[in-house]
Amino acid sequence: MGRSVNFNFKTVTVAASGTPVAFSATRIPTTRIEVFVPASNTGSVYVGNSAVTVSSIPRATSTTTVFIASENASLGNGDYFLLDELFLDADNNDDVAIIQYIVAEGGV
Predict the structure, then answer these.
(1) By 3-state DSSP, what share of the chain in percent is helix, strand and coil, each rounded to 5?
(2) 95 pLDDT band (50/70/90 cuts)?
(3) pLDDT tens column, 49-81
(4) Domain residue spans in the chain?
């Protein structure tokens, strides 16, 4: 029998530009992440590891950016992202991103 899959979302706020914020404080494996940047932000947001900076790529501005682990992503094969290892930085203080991600019931 297959796993149950749920879509979850959370808002990540960068309180201070130049200080990356983790997508999650806990280990959450996922094969797909969508980063939505509200038009109310005053600048771009940047996605990366703990060393992400405002000069990093990829960046997103008032759009939805999708990241997929691979074409045939599989939690069982170790082909996934860990939300606690992904970080967000922003051009301006208090800019946000809404993170939507897939979670398989029972995890990895």
Answers:
(1) 5, 45, 55
(2) very high
(3) 888 877 766 666 656 666 655 555 566 666 778
(4) 5-104
The CA distance from 67 to 48, in Å, is 11
Question: Domain 5-104's class?
Answer: mainly beta
Reading the block at residue 15, the tokens are 């309180």
Q: How far apart are CA 91 and CA 36, in angstroms?
A: 15
Confidence of residue 34 (pLDDT cuts 50, 70, 90): confident
In sequence order, the 6+-apart residues with CB closer than 8 A to the CB of 2 are: none
How far apart are the C-alpha atoms of 33 and 89, rounded to whole Å? 16
- The C-alpha atoms of residue 23 and residue 21 are separated, in whole angstroms, by 7
The per-residue pLDDT for 1 is 47
